[in-house]
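Give me the fold.
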Amino acid sequence: MTKLLAPSILAADFSKLGEEIKSVEIAGADIIHFDVMDGHFVPNLTIGPMILEATRRVTSLPIDAHLMVTNPDEVLESYIQAGANYLSVHVEVCPHLHRTLQRIRSLGVKAGVVLNPHSSVTSIETVLEDLDYVLVMTVNPGFGGQKFIESAFQKVGQLDKIRQERKLNFLIEVDGGVKLDNIAKISQAGTNLFVAGSAIFGSEDYRATIKAMKEAW
């Protein structure tokens, strides 16, 4: 299946964010990953729809908006209007998850569900036909630069097995601690979409890093 690399702008230099986004686009990125944190669902506060709209103006790449918020149903439309192409919500804060996914899709955007490290695959099995991707958090959400949680490999494998057995087409996305030295193993587990923040934006040569990651998977 498709394999895509999504630099997370959470790790970019915000004093020159437009330049950073253009740099990774030129360097070979496939998607721009956009982390939204509200200071409630996760212990940090980041960026909102105005920054997403600005991001949309400087890149032609798809934007993957990951909503780490307590009220996704109330705000998701603002991120879609700002230019998101992919939008994911956490299973823990969506009491009517099927309806939320239907709404995202009805607005012309790919719909995703996020699993935190403690969240089980069984919590989303009934909606796998109604989504476009599952985002597996391989760190605890809220901060960049954390170490990859090894137990996530089992979760990715479970999703890949279900996908094959039920002949489904959803993508499996992994976010957290993705680096050059583990991307091959992450890929082999069944991952399609790889989010990398500090591994790319913390490197001296974005093009060389992205090229090496794609060669490794």
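The mean pLDDT is 95.
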